[in-house]
Amino acid sequence: MDDTKVIASLDTFYSACMDLRKHNYDRCIESCTIILSKNPYDQAAWALKMRALTEQLSIDDIEAEEEGIADSYFNSDAIAENARVGTSLRTAQDTSNQRPRTVGGRPLSGIVRPSTSSAGGNNLQLALKTPRTVGSSRPLTSQTARNIRLGTASMVSQIDGPFINISRLNFPKYASDKQLSKLLFNYIYYQQNDIRNALDFAVEATKFCNFKDPWWKVQLGKCYVMLGLLRDGEAQFRSALQHGPNIEVFLRLSRLFIRLDQPLSSLDICQKAMSWFPHEVTLLIEIARIFEGLNNIPMSVKYYRDILELDATDMESIACIGLHHFYSDQPEVALRYYRRLLQMGLYNAELFNNLGLCSFYAQQFDVVTACFENALRLALDDNAADVWYNISHVAIGFGDLDIAEHSLHLTLSLNSSHGAALNNLAVLQWRKNNVSQAESLLNSAIAAEDHLYEPHYNRALLAQEEGDHQTSYAMVKKSLSIYPNHYNSKDILNELKKYFSSL
Amino acid sequence: MLVGVAVVIKNEVYFYRNCKPYHKYSIQSTIIRDTEECKLWQESEDVFDLLKRLQVLSSTIGFVNLSTTSQQMLCLNECHLIEYFEKYRKNNLHTITCVTELKRNKSEVYGVSCLVIATTDMISILDTESFKILPDKYECVSLWNVKLPGDPMSMVNMYVQSMSLEMTVVSCNVINTDGHSKGLVLMYCGSTVIHKIPMPDPVTCIIFGRFGQEENALIMITTNGKVDIKLLKRTATFDLCVRPTLTAHVQGNLSIPKRSNVFIEQTLREREHCNEIHVRTQQTWQILQMVVSNERLNSIKQKITSQFLHTSAQLLGLGPRFKIRFLLKNLGKDPLMGINVAFLYNAQYHSIESPRCRIPIIVPETEIYCETFVTCCTYGGSYERAIDIVVSRGMNVIYRAKVNMPVYNIQTNNHNEELNDIMSW
């Protein structure tokens, strides 16, 4: 018999169920709509449609946390303004001055994930002033961040009105229904992204099951966290853990402490979780990330290595270890890690860019340009700037200063506030004796990204050569405040001190 | 309770009370069992004679039972023997090197103290009431070892109450490269050096405490009889971060990573195929040169980059109303006159207060900016929301820039409802 005939003869509800299983959400929703138009009180179809709509949009929301500007600066949970060294992600001591920084001033990580790109500073002014593009700006609140990532359905207009009108829903009635309540909650939380109603609903539901269901406690905690009531969230998660250990809850609790800027408590939670689930990769990743955030790179790399022993295909670990090798002067080892990523099927501008840089520093010159050509081909607007910047580096290495200058101009055309590019362009102009241009470019570099010490140092050197000792002193001071052990800056400072004392 | 002063000369301890001699205690009689050894040192005229006799003695009573001086003598290299012999023959074998007091009961501040006597060989504790050596039941545990930059001369404990910081001050005799001995005072916190004071002469004696009005004073006596008084500044800060003690040999240990296998393979490849690598590199680089030049040419044609103008845009505010600040800088030598800046936008997504701005002159090397307010209306893709900025002089476009607008909260639905909710909270 013809297959299509069999399918056509299937019960609509059954085929809808199959469609859901096959992640064929649109068809599932369609079938459910047909059933519901015939019988609006068909609860099974209603639940199925709800599930399909939810799953269409649901993501792993443990990872998708990005702290918005408002969350980090207007929170009332800030306990200590000046946290002790090593206890806060914001004041994490910078031990790795070789690693370049992101626009926000954080040392670069091997992988871009939520919150690695965001600023670590405490300064609201800075956060608001940092050149904000889609690529670099932080969202205003974590809710916004979610919206961008998900594009929640609430923004997509529905032709025949909303599927469920939440404001007219009888919460106690549905919350008491054990079959439906969880589905409905997920629908409100993920699909509608209506956290306040989701919270109300969860409160009703947990009341109904006599506060005995850990699932509802976790959901309550999730809602509290989304609303910024972190301490209430913590209480819910802890209470959920009393019913038994659960990786998800441990992870959520750890994330919550990171939002409270208490990485040590977060590590504590992870260690506790590890005693229950000793080989759990997600927990190890969490620990490795926290160590990286604390700038404890050796520990972070140790955990990433542990992860690779358990799961040899974890891209984040490979990338992070590769990066570590690159910045500890072993580009040939880093090259191996990145090649592994390429073999695993990753194919993007960043990877080719890294491969090009690694082979350049490992003196494999014949493949460098091929890598960068690939990177340029794959690059989008926001990462093309960095690719051009790296090409300029290679050009300087090859001694081709004209090409270097062109590449730097191209970098700036894509990202006009690329501090490092401005700085390097200034140095190139300086070599060509264009001192005034070099000076103004350096000033722009400082204005664009004032967490780099190089422009400050160069400005100091330039000022000293010109005999402007006062500016030189001010600049060298700034350079040393960013990188206290910079030898050349200290040199200038000593010379200036000698000069000033001889006056 | 009686206050006394104990003074040590060679191997005798003199006790004074009320500035009168009270008791003399000689350690020789009780501690030194091996008078034979002393005799050897005094009687022998020659180094080698002494060496022979000492070897005989060590085989009879055991090497361990010899004094440290003799032990070192036996272990010494031949070329240093005579020097060593001359240095120590006049000295008594068992001199007291340092003494200190030790409270018999730690909690009693004004309680009776014992005297801890250290000779070249051993540490013993003397009871100051009965003048007898206490049975040696004490045990010591070494907490850490520090390598000093030179021979230690004296040490003192330094407790700064205002900082609640306890330090150990050690003075060392450092031999310079030119052969002169100099003093160096090191302050240890735990096993880390937190401060160093170089002194012109070796410091033989240090004391820390109150000096007149000053709480924290360090008084030092140097070998040539100078008294040096150092006061601790009230604002002093010590560098307390933990780092390995690099006092003696400051050798910059560069962290050079191990040579990996891959590295060796690669160098082999370079050696064997150097020609091919070079040719290929040159070829591909020439191609990339063309790509770069082309791109640059295009960008100049499209006025995205300019040699004479550097711009950057800042976006201030939290939204939906932002302030765009567009900074212009003239990189050329001549002033730019009659510049117009226009903001091009899609009216569906934004509204801009004054979308154009005239800048009469841009003087070289100074930065000027123009500002305008932009209000976002609806949600859209990033390309649709971007605002183009065009800089023109007369009819000529000289520069173009694009500002990507950040995402902000627009609650298009139930916006008012939410506002009411916030009010009622």
From TrEMBL, chain A:
<dbReference type="InterPro" id="IPR011990">
    <property type="entry name" value="TPR-like_helical_dom_sf"/>
</dbReference>
<dbReference type="GO" id="GO:0034464">
    <property type="term" value="C:BBSome"/>
</dbReference>
<dbReference type="Pfam" id="PF13432">
    <property type="entry name" value="TPR_16"/>
</dbReference>
<dbReference type="GO" id="GO:0097730">
    <property type="term" value="C:non-motile cilium"/>
</dbReference>
<feature type="compositionally biased region" description="Polar residues">
    <location>
        <begin position="88"/>
        <end position="100"/>
    </location>
</feature>
<dbReference type="InterPro" id="IPR019734">
    <property type="entry name" value="TPR_rpt"/>
</dbReference>
<feature type="region of interest" description="Disordered">
    <location>
        <begin position="85"/>
        <end position="109"/>
    </location>
</feature>
<dbReference type="GO" id="GO:1905515">
    <property type="term" value="P:non-motile cilium assembly"/>
</dbReference>
<protein>
    <submittedName>
        <fullName>Uncharacterized protein</fullName>
    </submittedName>
</protein>
<dbReference type="InterPro" id="IPR028796">
    <property type="entry name" value="BBS8"/>
</dbReference>
<dbReference type="GO" id="GO:0036064">
    <property type="term" value="C:ciliary basal body"/>
</dbReference>
TrEMBL record, chain B:
<dbReference type="Pfam" id="PF23304">
    <property type="entry name" value="GAE_BBS1"/>
</dbReference>
<dbReference type="GO" id="GO:0061512">
    <property type="term" value="P:protein localization to cilium"/>
</dbReference>
<feature type="domain" description="Bardet-Biedl syndrome 1 protein GAE">
    <location>
        <begin position="311"/>
        <end position="409"/>
    </location>
</feature>
<dbReference type="InterPro" id="IPR028784">
    <property type="entry name" value="BBS1"/>
</dbReference>
<dbReference type="GO" id="GO:0005113">
    <property type="term" value="F:patched binding"/>
</dbReference>
<dbReference type="Pfam" id="PF14779">
    <property type="entry name" value="BBS1"/>
</dbReference>
<dbReference type="GO" id="GO:0005930">
    <property type="term" value="C:axoneme"/>
</dbReference>
<dbReference type="GO" id="GO:1905515">
    <property type="term" value="P:non-motile cilium assembly"/>
</dbReference>
<dbReference type="InterPro" id="IPR032728">
    <property type="entry name" value="BBS1_N"/>
</dbReference>
<protein>
    <submittedName>
        <fullName>Uncharacterized protein</fullName>
    </submittedName>
</protein>
<feature type="domain" description="Bardet-Biedl syndrome 1 N-terminal">
    <location>
        <begin position="5"/>
        <end position="134"/>
    </location>
</feature>
<dbReference type="InterPro" id="IPR056419">
    <property type="entry name" value="GAE_BBS1"/>
</dbReference>
<dbReference type="GO" id="GO:0005813">
    <property type="term" value="C:centrosome"/>
</dbReference>
<dbReference type="GO" id="GO:0005119">
    <property type="term" value="F:smoothened binding"/>
</dbReference>
<dbReference type="GO" id="GO:0034464">
    <property type="term" value="C:BBSome"/>
</dbReference>
